[in-house]
What does this fold into?
Amino acid sequence: MSEFLQYVLSGTTVGAVYALIALGFTLIYNASTVVNFAQGEFVMIGGMVTAFLFAAGTPLWLAAPTAIVVAAIVGILLNKLAIEPARGASVISLIVITIGASIFLRGLAGIVFDKQIHRFPAFTGEDPIAVFGATILPQGLWVLGGGAAVLVGLYLFLTRSIVGKAVMATANNRLAAKLVGINTNSMMTLSFGLSAAIGALAGVLATPITLVAYDVGVGMALKGFAAAMLGGMGSPVGAIVGGLLLGLIEAMTAGYLSSEYKDAVAFIVILIVLFVMPSGLFGPRSVERV
Amino acid sequence: MRLSGKAWALIALAVIIALAPLAFPSSFYYRVGALILINGLAVTGLVILFGYAGQISLGHAGFAGIGGYAAALIPIHLGVHPVFGLIAGAILSAGLAFLIGRPVLRLKGYYLAVATLGFGILVYLVLNNEAQLTGGPDGMSVERLGLRALSDALGLGLNTSQVWYWFMGVVLLIGAYLALNLFTSPTGRALRSLHDSEVAAGTLGVDVARYKLTAFVISAVYASLAGSLQALLNGFVTPDVAGFLHSIQWVTMTVLGGAGTVLGAIFGAAVLTALPQALTVFKEYEHMMLGLIMMVVMVFMPAGLFPSLAKLFRRVR
It folds into this structure.
């Protein structure tokens, strides 16, 4: 039993990171119908910038927010320089553009920083906390708490604030949003900035546990993308459920079956879900008009 | 005699393949040339899937993995010539594509992308983890195809890279001929009709699911052959042949060059295979440059390099 609980705890911790990345995918997708494959690079930027500022003597409480701001600026630049000019391009062109951006950012990080593996200390100590015979790292609680805080904050922002409602309106119907006077371009910029900041936050929270290097972005993007698709693209609830589910499946497979095939089982589950529900667990049941 | 566009495309391709070696400073370039032609074969298959039928795949390297390891394993375990490994790999890939194609191709857009991505990763994981069969991450050596011996027996006096270059040139011409033929055939018309609108094609009596599956299976065979040939050229194969990055490379070549046309995609394969060789001078900046080129081309030439350059050329003339 304690073994099972251990897998649940570690699966949820990893799953919360995936969920944050998937949430970033969802935000950008809603604002622009672009799936941003460079999303994983924001996670990398969050971790790397914090690690380097910390190594240079900046206290963690200052280094982490700086890293998130840096990532947000990169996200906004990405939108302005590569996504906005390509408006109306096909799905496959957009995939190539954002993968190009991902390769570019990875190459840049390899030069600006270095190609070593980095970490910084956990926020509140490294001693595992015992929970009914299982253990969880204090940093794991930070990841879970951070994920929950982002979720609540995002929910309140999107449903209660006027700017958040404008973002939702843009997501629902771009043309209609324009007609009621919403500046849809600034909503897109906002979504990219916000999404990059959430990705970077995931990187900051997870780095003490998972470590960071210039090339961790691809793996992160794949997992986040898979989680978002599992949940149903465009649904924030789907992103969270998809992320947590993916983390749990991986932890259970690694624990009970084989750690080599944890990714395989995750993808098999995704394939089966998509075969049965072609738009994911919580995706809109889209009706195509001809 | 008036020649069709198809004939012109084939003649242009043949002339370029025949004349390119004149610009090769050393025999190392024959090897790069052979690699370009192998990638050209794979992207010709992707043109049928992306350009004709309008579908997406981020997992076609999975089929290359099957082809590559079939070429390696079948000669070892069955004691037959590697060419049978290549054929068996193609049959296996076609069968697998047929089986998974129906459920996978019901998905659209990004959902199709993630499903094919998942397929590629599954193949990669099996090749990587079943070490007692595949040698695991270190890969395994592949028996030679015996092209050099054949050329020596014929007294052609070519080295290995040269033989492979000319052999691949012929293979690619055959592959391109078949793909171009398909374009103008009734099947090709059906494929293009479902690219424009699946619903419209369906109402006109096109069996949408069947034609999508046809394109998927054909492109899987092209990818499998390319994987086998690459393994046979290198005399070595690792699980990376099935990796996500290999799939992405092929997608990028196809789209960057121009997904709609066979010549465009082969042009993309040439640019992106040769580019890393040229960029080794800027070793540190290689990835940055590659990413930058991908973004700039797609933003400013959404149709791809080849169609945009062709248009420019026509305007200048």
Q: What stands out?
A: Residues 93 and 101 of chain A are 12 Å apart (CA to CA). Chain A touches chain B at residues 35, 82, 85-86, 89-93, 95-97, 99-108, 110-111, 218, 222, 225-226, 229, 233, 260-261, 263-264, 267-268, 270-271, 274-275, 278-280, 288, 290 (CB under 8 Å). Strands of chain A lie at 129-131, 134-136.
